[in-house]
């Protein structure tokens, strides 16, 4: 009979070497003239002409930073608890990670009130080109009033601010997870990238708010059968919550070969914000609401969020095939959908209450996934 050690050794799989990352697609660095043209686009207003010398000086600094790839110009050593304590990590990332950890602890405190993050996904508001509020905003406010009536604290992310405020962005996901899951850091470390002027990213704030929340409510219109672009960017950027790496020092930043090896050596795809309740309200005028609702719910289910039941998953048409000009009037007359916004809020509230009481709403969550990826 073989020894336990021999048996273990005989069944141990040989270590797979990480494949070399495929390269050649990127467009390379901009030339100086093209960089300057793009930099000066922000100063097209003739009022800036009086500061042309200073702008030229800033352009030269920005060019040098671009050349040197100064993505994260302010860093500090990762410190204890990281794979490489001496590795320099962006201070912005470390501060966000600390805030998320604090928010997660507060979220677990039974003495705190229920907290819901409401995401209003329409791009429309009356401060910019459309000149009018959105129906999503109105429906979200109906739901919010019901939640607050029950004592819930509501935090609102109104994505229309991306179209009407200066310097606020949700940058697109760069797809690190497709190279290797450990290359996708939580919170996302792709932004800000100061050398590329990819700044003003809203996601760090959203990660913190989501970590603090007991529930999530998404209210969204349907744009051409799909989610609005801002919501799609936001949902893509939540990929790091589902399997992401909380230690950028382990991959020395964005070293793809290191991340590939870590994944091949064994990665458990951790769910960082599980067991938060969610509800979704999708509306449209002609087509696509059901498909969008399914897409959103499927992603949230996969991330380990808990659905607020059938009454918390709503897709409705408002002013079906009627004029856009009278869409708000159609909502005024649709008392049923307004009442359903209250119903969605009540379903979310009830689910949060049960989760915080320790009631197991989805026993299948305890079943280990055969294929977590």
From TrEMBL:
<keyword id="KW-0288">FMN</keyword>
<feature type="domain" description="NADPH-dependent FMN reductase-like">
    <location>
        <begin position="116"/>
        <end position="304"/>
    </location>
</feature>
<feature type="compositionally biased region" description="Polar residues">
    <location>
        <begin position="1"/>
        <end position="12"/>
    </location>
</feature>
<feature type="region of interest" description="Disordered">
    <location>
        <begin position="1"/>
        <end position="35"/>
    </location>
</feature>
<keyword id="KW-0285">Flavoprotein</keyword>
<dbReference type="Pfam" id="PF03358">
    <property type="entry name" value="FMN_red"/>
</dbReference>
<protein>
    <submittedName>
        <fullName>NADPH-dependent FMN reductase</fullName>
    </submittedName>
</protein>
<dbReference type="InterPro" id="IPR005025">
    <property type="entry name" value="FMN_Rdtase-like_dom"/>
</dbReference>
<dbReference type="GO" id="GO:0016491">
    <property type="term" value="F:oxidoreductase activity"/>
</dbReference>
<dbReference type="InterPro" id="IPR029039">
    <property type="entry name" value="Flavoprotein-like_sf"/>
</dbReference>
């Amino acid at each position: 009979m073989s020894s336990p050690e021999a048996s273990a050794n005989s069944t141990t799989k040989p270590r797979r070497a990480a494949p070399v990352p495929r390269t050649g697609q990127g467009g390379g660095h901009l030339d100086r003239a093209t960089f300057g043209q793009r930099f000066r686009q922000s100063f097209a207003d003739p009022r800036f002409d009086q500061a042309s010398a200073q702008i030229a000086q800033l352009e030269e600094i920005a060019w040098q930073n671009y050349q040197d790839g100064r993505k994260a110009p302010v860093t500090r050593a990762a410190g204890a608890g990281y794979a490489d304590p001496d590795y320099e990590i962006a201070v912005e990332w470390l501060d966000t990670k600390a805030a998320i950890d604090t928010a997660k602890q507060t979220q677990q405190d039974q003495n705190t009130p229920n907290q819901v993050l409401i995401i209003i996904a329409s791009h429309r508001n009356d401060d910019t080109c459309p000149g009018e509020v959105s129906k999503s905003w109105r429906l979200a406010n109906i739901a919010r009033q019901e939640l607050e009536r029950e004592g819930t604290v509501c935090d609102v992310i109104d994505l229309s601010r991306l179209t009407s405020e200066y310097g606020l962005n949700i940058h697109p996901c760069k797809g690190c997870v497709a190279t290797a899951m450990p290359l996708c850091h939580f919170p996302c470390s792709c932004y800000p990238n100061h050398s590329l002027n990819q700044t003003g990213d809203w996601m760090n704030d959203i990660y913190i708010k989501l970590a603090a929340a007991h529930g999530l409510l998404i209210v969204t219109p349907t744009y051409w059968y799909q989610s609005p672009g801002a919501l799609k960017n936001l949902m893509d950027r939540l990929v790091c919550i589902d399997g992401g790496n909380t230690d950028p020092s382990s991959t020395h930043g964005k070293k793809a070969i290191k991340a590939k090896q870590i994944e091949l050596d064994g990665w458990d795809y951790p769910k960082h914000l599980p067991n938060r309740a969610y509800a979704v309200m999708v509306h449209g005028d002609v087509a696509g609401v059901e498909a969008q609702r399914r897409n959103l719910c499927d992603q949230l289910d996969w991330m380990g969020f808990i659905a607020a039941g059938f009454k918390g998953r709503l897709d409705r048409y408002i002013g079906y095939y009627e004029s856009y000009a009278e869409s708000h009037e159609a909502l005024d007359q649709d008392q049923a959908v307004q009442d359903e916004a209250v119903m969605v809020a009540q379903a979310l509230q009830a689910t949060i209450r049960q989760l915080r009481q320790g009631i197991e709403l989805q026993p299948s969550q305890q079943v280990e996934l055969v294929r977590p990826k």
